[in-house]
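Final report, closing paragraph on structural work. Over the funding period we assembled a curated collection of sequence-structure pairs, and we close with a single example.
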Amino acid sequence: MDEQAVIDRFVDDAQAVLLVGEQEIEHIVPVTALPPGAQPGTWLNVRFDGDTLVEAVVDEVETERVRERLSEKMNRLRSRGRRVD
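Its predicted structure, as stored:
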């Protein structure tokens, strides 16, 4: 795989916006090109041929690491008495 990407969002349930690499370059790809079960917030290892996504594999380790980090931040904010919805 060439780069890491995170699924930022889905558009019209047909396209996914990926933020690719450290520069978070936006790529729009068909949802059908993603691994089954991939959702916004899922990290992927991806390979592109030009603008075409040719391979995408879920990076379970990075996805879980980021989810845990965000959960910890939310818990810290809640413990400070700030309302977080």
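The chain is about 25% helix and 40% strand. The chain has a mean pLDDT of 90. We thank the funder for supporting this effort.
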